[in-house]
Write a sequence for this structure.
């Protein structure tokens, strides 16, 4: 072996990686070559120096500091997470938890009670606009909950009385809602789990798919009043505008002036719930199996014994408690309602996960939260109510958090910061 | 070294932030070695290493290949170092450290700034191998596996890295002689 060959193998040699024969050959060469010996010595020196320094640095302990910072910052970020785009960052966390699978599902069931006032004659153009909606068997569209910049887009595939729904802030979750049988199937496409939830009762009765909801408005508008607002530019195109008003909702339609194709629908329900529908495709060729209520192959069915229908005031109080205690660390939120509920869902999951409760208990918390919020959804579309809890501390009996007028009642129900509830006459309502 | 990086990366992404600690344990020494040479003091290196780790955690979603967590982490650390770097400041600190080391004979912290800054100057491919071997506790075989290269390439890269380190240390020594 010559110096060249020996140099080549020197590192492997002192790392002990050489085969016996090569090892011996290098040793033989080293015996007779002072230059290579010196080389090896220098290499060993450098090696020792690296080892010593490596050991010194290995004594450091960043673990505690880093983990503390990660957890602290995670909390800060969660607090700042009011926008759904932020929620995307922790979406994987969410998807693993059974809590939101159900809770999120519950939060987006829409209860819509209608009361459009009827007056006027239909216009020809209006009839053209609504024709596809009334006759379509399938509809595909995007639904934006809250304002256009909320970032919460729900993609809806409607086939007959079933809906398949996927939401942008919970991308691995699919809901299939069967209106006829008041059942909902929630699928976690990552965790491969499936949960059935009963939505019968008042919820099932008054729950409509958005499209059915619009369809009903249209049917009522056909015999009634729809205001033609002329032309506008919307989503970058020219459109004719129609507005229909009920006593509790207002729905605006934009359609192509030439083809009468529906471009966009905006609905405002109650005092602060709104949604936008766009990217319509009527009678799209969509597969029936997309709305199958069977548990897909490879999915595990998980049990859930909480039904979402017939939510009561008690359920609502419980969800206020969860909101203040778990999500708000002891303070009631700035706002409640469908949009706020959806936005806060990731935070709830994160906090429940941090509480390290059993899966069963976690699911229960999520379901209770959603169920109570559904009670609020009914108020949102039916009655008079007001949320005044922003910043109120949980337990503060002197502050009013919420009041509403139950249907058919003369008096009002008032919920206080300690979650006690009292009957109050109209004149005594907090201003 | 029970589980590979990919395992822990996925655990973190699946909502187990606590498992990030295993990656911290695995790479804190490596990061410190990488940063100490760049930033000139152990305190600053620790600060930057911590920042890099936290940043890595919160950006984990952007890591396309969980297998390459280490290279990716090193990239983040380099960025953090760049941000922290104020050339003149470092220079000043290096001077201070050198003189204090000479005074106290440098045994207290057993830190070797000359060596660390030589490592910091290595081109990335060589730096990675040195960091993994001496600061990450990897054997040559494990490096081969982690960086997905043949064992022979690892020893050749090491060999070249040693040569560069020696040269760089030699130059530093001469510079000091002239300074004194």
């Amino acid at each position: 072996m010559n110096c060249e060959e020996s140099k080549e193998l020197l590192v492997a040699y002192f790392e002990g990686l050489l085969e016996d024969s090569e090892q011996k050959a290098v040793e033989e060469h080293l015996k007779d070559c002072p230059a290579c010996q010196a080389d090896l010595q220098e290499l060993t020196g450098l090696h020792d120096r690296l080892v010593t320094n490596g050991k010194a640095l290995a004594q450091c302990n960043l673990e505690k500091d880093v983990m503390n910072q990660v957890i602290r910052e995670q909390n800060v970020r969660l607090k700042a997470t009011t926008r759904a785009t932020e929620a995307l960052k922790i979406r994987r966390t969410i998807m693993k938890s059974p809590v939101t699978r159900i809770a999120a599902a519950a939060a987006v069931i829409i209860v819509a009670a209608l009361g459009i006032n009827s007056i006027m004659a239909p216009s020809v153009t209006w009839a053209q606009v609504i024709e596809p909606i009334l006759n379509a068997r399938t509809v595909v569209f995007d639904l934006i909950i809250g304002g256009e910049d909320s970032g919460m887009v729900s993609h809806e595939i409607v086939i007959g009385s079933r809906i398949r729904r996927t939401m942008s802030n919970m991308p691995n979750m699919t809901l299939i809602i069967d209106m006829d049988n008041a059942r909902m199937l929630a699928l976690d496409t990552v965790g491969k789990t499936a949960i059935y939830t009963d939505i019968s009762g008042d919820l099932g009765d008054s729950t409509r798919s958005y499209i059915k909801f619009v369809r009903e408005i249209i049917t009522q508008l056909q015999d009634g009043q729809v205001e033609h607002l002329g032309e506008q530019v919307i989503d970058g195109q020219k459109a004719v505008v129609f507005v229909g008003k009920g006593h509790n909702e207002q729905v605006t339609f934009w359609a192509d002036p030439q083809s009468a194709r529906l471009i966009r629908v905006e609905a405002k329900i109650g005092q602060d719930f709104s949604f936008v529908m766009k990217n319509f495709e009527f009678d799209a060729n969509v597969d029936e199996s997309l709305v199958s209520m069977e548990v897909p192959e490879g999915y595990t069915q998980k049990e859930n014994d909480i039904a979402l229908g017939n939510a009561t005031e008690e359920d609502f109080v419980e969800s206020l408690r969860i909101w203040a205690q778990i999500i708000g660390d002891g303070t009631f939120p700035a706002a409640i309602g469908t949009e706020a509920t959806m936005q806060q869902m990731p935070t709830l999951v994160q906090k429940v996960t941090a509480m390290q409760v059993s899966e069963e208990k976690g699911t229960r918390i999520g379901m209770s939260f959603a169920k109570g919020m559904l009670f609020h959804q009914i108020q949102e579309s039916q009655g008079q109510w007001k949320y005044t809890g922003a910043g109120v501390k949980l337990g503060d009996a002197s502050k009013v958090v919420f009041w509403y007028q139950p249907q058919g009642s003369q008096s009002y129900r008032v919920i206080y910061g300690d979650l006690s509830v009292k009957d109050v006459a109209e004149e005594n309502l907090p201003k | 070294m029970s589980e590979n990086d990919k395992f822990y990366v996925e655990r973190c992404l699946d909502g187990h932030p606590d498992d990030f600690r295993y990656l911290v344990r695995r790479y804190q020494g490596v990061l410190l070695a990488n940063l100490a040479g760049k930033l000139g003091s152990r305190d600053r290196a620790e600060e930057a290493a911590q920042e890099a780790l936290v940043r890595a955690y919160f950006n984990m979603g952007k890591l396309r290949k969980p297998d390459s967590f280490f290279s990716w982490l090193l990239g983040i650390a380099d960025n953090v170092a760049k941000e922290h770097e104020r050339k003149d400041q470092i220079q000043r600190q290096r001077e201070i450290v050198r003189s204090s080391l000479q005074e106290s004979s440098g045994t207290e912290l057993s830190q070797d700034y000359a060596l660390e800054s030589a490592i910091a100057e290595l081109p990335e491919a060589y730096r990675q191998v040195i960091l993994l071997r001496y600061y990450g506790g990897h054997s040559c075989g494990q490096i081969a596996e982690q960086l997905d290269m043949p064992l022979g390439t690892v020893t050749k890269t090491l060999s070249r890295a040693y040569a560069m380190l020696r040269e760089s240390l030699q130059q530093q020594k001469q510079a000091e002689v002239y300074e004194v």
Summary: Chain B has one domain: 5-179.
